[in-house]
Give the backbone structure.
Amino acid sequence: MSGNAFGALFRVTTWGESHGRAVGAVVDGCPAGLPLTKEDVQKELDRRRPGQSEVSTARQEDDWVEILSGVFEKRTTGTPISMLILNKDAQPGAYEALRHRPRPGHADYTYIARYGIRDHRGGGRSSGRETAGRVAAGAVAKILLAREGVEVLGYVIELGGVKASVTAADLARLGELTESNSVRCPDPEAAGKMISALEDARRGGDSLGGIVEIVARGVPPGLGDPVFDKLDADLAKALMSIGAVKAVEIGAGIESARMRGSEMNDSLIKGAEGIEFETNNAGGILGGISNGADLVCRIAVKPTPSISRPQRTVDLSTGEPVEIEIKGRHDPSIPPRIVPVAEAMVALVLADHLLRARTARI
Amino acid sequence: MSGNAFGALFRVTTWGESHGRAVGAVVDGCPAGLPLTKEDVQKELDRRRPGQSEVSTARQEDDWVEILSGVFEKRTTGTPISMLILNKDAQPGAYEALRHRPRPGHADYTYIARYGIRDHRGGGRSSGRETAGRVAAGAVAKILLAREGVEVLGYVIELGGVKASVTAADLARLGELTESNSVRCPDPEAAGKMISALEDARRGGDSLGGIVEIVARGVPPGLGDPVFDKLDADLAKALMSIGAVKAVEIGAGIESARMRGSEMNDSLIKGAEGIEFETNNAGGILGGISNGADLVCRIAVKPTPSISRPQRTVDLSTGEPVEIEIKGRHDPSIPPRIVPVAEAMVALVLADHLLRARTARI
Amino acid sequence: MSGNAFGALFRVTTWGESHGRAVGAVVDGCPAGLPLTKEDVQKELDRRRPGQSEVSTARQEDDWVEILSGVFEKRTTGTPISMLILNKDAQPGAYEALRHRPRPGHADYTYIARYGIRDHRGGGRSSGRETAGRVAAGAVAKILLAREGVEVLGYVIELGGVKASVTAADLARLGELTESNSVRCPDPEAAGKMISALEDARRGGDSLGGIVEIVARGVPPGLGDPVFDKLDADLAKALMSIGAVKAVEIGAGIESARMRGSEMNDSLIKGAEGIEFETNNAGGILGGISNGADLVCRIAVKPTPSISRPQRTVDLSTGEPVEIEIKGRHDPSIPPRIVPVAEAMVALVLADHLLRARTARI
Amino acid sequence: MSGNAFGALFRVTTWGESHGRAVGAVVDGCPAGLPLTKEDVQKELDRRRPGQSEVSTARQEDDWVEILSGVFEKRTTGTPISMLILNKDAQPGAYEALRHRPRPGHADYTYIARYGIRDHRGGGRSSGRETAGRVAAGAVAKILLAREGVEVLGYVIELGGVKASVTAADLARLGELTESNSVRCPDPEAAGKMISALEDARRGGDSLGGIVEIVARGVPPGLGDPVFDKLDADLAKALMSIGAVKAVEIGAGIESARMRGSEMNDSLIKGAEGIEFETNNAGGILGGISNGADLVCRIAVKPTPSISRPQRTVDLSTGEPVEIEIKGRHDPSIPPRIVPVAEAMVALVLADHLLRARTARI
């Protein structure tokens, strides 16, 4: 079964393992005529790349993308866009010791359970490296969205228990604030505390979890395909499909469980350009269809499972319990690097539904 | 675009509006040879039916299912199973006053934004009535799962701020405890408080949200199709596609954002029948593939949007602000009735992935 | 696996067995706002119904369709259109004698080989009765196409070796000519000979094959999705999926194998409203995309496998060879009745690709 | 819409243009544990490569394949298999003169009609070069099939009006006979005449069509998913999706239209290992499901549209009629080179249905 493709009309298939020759993505269904260059894609990949700051992994991933098809004279042609990123800094030998010893919190054991075979080098297909293909495809989606006035922005709002405060004023320059520090938090004060917390965790051979919020502005009302392919349902799948994500919230999210109907319901009001909503507990989606308000979602990201402390597991070749220590280069926290990946997934969902909406009426 | 179907191999298409002739489901891809009777499906529909207790809506939905195809001599034949449930107690006239006045918290406005036309009677397709088809299909999935030793159980763990406590001892008789009260909460003491809170809310013309937990036991390791069709990704979509759900958690869920790697990681241990996990923060899924531990998910359900208090909206025929009051019969809280729906969605995902797993190896 | 659905955006799922309670179809993805009544569908079903003439089976199928959902105030709402046709004249007992004796030329043996179980009454799911659902769905597709100026017409051009001659003048009143005789052949002289041939075959306890041509006029250039979902590829699948079809031709079809490039290539010329083609060997499709010329396809239909002559088979309960005679009511030839079914399948493909084309450009 | 992928469970996505950087294929859904090397794929690509003989195009395509993912220690891992073939001998300049002048019989005009933009160099995506990706994917499918005892063989049975005669004795060494001459015809005498006919056509600046037959042996009974995804329906789509194919026949094909039921029906007989069929007019498929007999299909291939004779077309930049002559290297006939492509498509369908059949029963 082919689980490596996402989207119905704007569809991406990703491929590649952490320490294989390359990773890549094929985007099928991108409308013809869209201006697209390698630089548009590279820009997003650069945001995903590790090694950007003191708090992320030291592995040097160059991540140079090549566009092999689907673009002619700087425009998309309607044919598949194949993008390839070579794996350069692979050190597969580093993983040999763990070949038969599944790392806690990783997919090592479950891949064996499913497939009976596993490319164990650096996590293989279950590595975060796989997300390079998502980000490349998401870059194409973002260009399509931008033409329709839709912008997708992600940022860290909580890390290691430190919560950020994002004011209305911040929202105007969210992208800039987010990229101004290594934890991608638009609240500079909180960002400082998060960095300290990360340093503490790293020194203790441990890691931290956090929460990322993704906002899409300019989403027109009418996107989403009830009843199963609701916009929020597809967003939930898209975001939960990113490794390390353990929860997805839309709008008021978990808190809506503690509200009364009279608090939760967003009143419709007469706005300058038509219907608006007084509040946005819905997070921009009603009955699975966008309502024109900002689309707001959040993901809970678990702490990096690769920690340097000793951990208990079972050696699959002997069936005996063993203790392992994970060497190598690992981020002490995933949220800052997951930001562009989460944006990419939201952009892919929106691009797909933008096209789907074209067939909703005669 | 066809958003009314769910699943890749075990696939259900639902159809029908709240106040149309009927609602139904077609299950395509159910393996041949499965014992199936009308009673198996009716039993689950009875759990979904409103009017079962003092806290749910007074509408009498008989919900008698008919199996029109796909079963021969009490066994499935591998051909589509078409199930139909007539709408009997429809009172469409009650909705005429709201035809042009979108109810806050409902899909009224967004259906118009998408389709330009809307069957406004009782919410039409966006009504909770649509879930009857899901429950019918889920009943078939449950029988397939039961053959493999998989059981799916849902229950309310929080309602109107009242939290239930579920002990290890309770888990042994979870189904029985859950069905013993009208709020489907396995903790009798909490259930009592929840019922009081609901009565309070109802008297105030208001409604309450809550949290439902769904556990699947006996799930074999190896289910789930990385990278996009991860088991948790498909569960997130399945659950978020249910109306009123605003968040989905797997395992430790939101709390994983506040944990350290050394706390979050579940150690692998040598169990009686192979690998086991010391804890279950992962909620039974690693890298998108089941690990053999209990599968645990939770959904946050918003308060019922139909409340009898006056609410502000805009009349679409005049463009002017108006105040509306919603008459009719409405549950003051959705979680107790959503339990069988959530179970059905989890069962559909597991049945689909059970079949998908058959093709994972040569 | 769910093989009972067809189409990507305009998608139909059919269900039902020959002698079960009912057959039906669910159309998902029909754009909102399309005028649709029960009569529109009934009209097409009436064309498919047997018992219309001396040459078709005597079974009385009333085929009254009910539209159970997806239509509100005589327009489609964008939600699934569920259509149901009760089975009234079923005589399942007539098939008991053949329960374990697969009829030559039928799917009896292969259904057992695949599923291990089979609803043997009247062919069950493999019966021609299944096509009622296709015709109902095709009726909806035809209305969508008519709005865009596309018309789909089928007719018998060969039966029992008798070939029809269709002149340019005939093309102007093709529908009328076709429906004027019981073999649906627009050439009245050939029709007379075909009817005689059928009577001969029936008297001899035998049956005849034939060829049906389907033309779609007004197809705009640009429909079809290379490389695998070419318009001709999807038509080939659609038509070959009809029982008894053993070949599909597009344009010059088989004869193109005997032509030279200089004969086969259709020259582009300057027409009144843009590009036209001097000839139409391509059958309206180049590189899998419609070119604006008439779309022309043909299907070869095998003789009805149910013949009253004695035939040899093997009794599956004993494993021994036996001779069988098939009782009951059977058409001596399928082509006349397959015409509306083939039109429906072509209409479904075109409706789907009409919607798909909406996303081909930015 | 994503039309560049084929298959439900064993799914290939191809990408790439004739004169872009590379062409390739991603196979998703191949079961884990299958032995696979680059050489297995290269062997099939070598058969597709032009320049093998005096009758095929002189372009030197090296067609070296690289497997970039999905294989570890010479076995598939269940993750996507990405294969890439660089385009080395591209001469895009040769096509500049035809940029605005659609070649008759080619997709030039229709790509513009659909996408408004076209990579005109060498046909771009509509070039036969695209089939390299199909052949690479088909090579993987063939290995999966071989494990189950299924073999797929294609050969030319008619070319330029010359018909081959294939005896029962030939069938035993069909592969060898087919590869023994440049027209891939197992009848050496007919092959000689075909080669002469080709030389004649080439000298006249013209081209020839022909017929290719594909046989699959060892197909187990039970493959195929009625009603729309019948085995023959999927084969028809697969084969018709190859450029230049204008007709697809199964078993007796077109001739079945001229047979009587008593001639067409294949009697079931008691064979050494179970049910067998006395004749094989069905071509191995009944009701869309394989019956265990040899699967037989044929395709009619039109003459190469690129001929050196002057042809009439319209210049799209001026709207005026013009005469063009096509320079460059072109095969005077497609059938010999289409053989491995047709085999690949049949293998892809069978591999997909082999996996699908695993879920047909409980």
User: Anything to note?
Assistant: Chain C touches chain B through 47 residues (CB under 8 Å). Chain C is about 25% helix and 25% strand. The radius of gyration of chain C is 21 Å. Residues 166 and 172 of chain C are 11 Å apart (CA to CA).
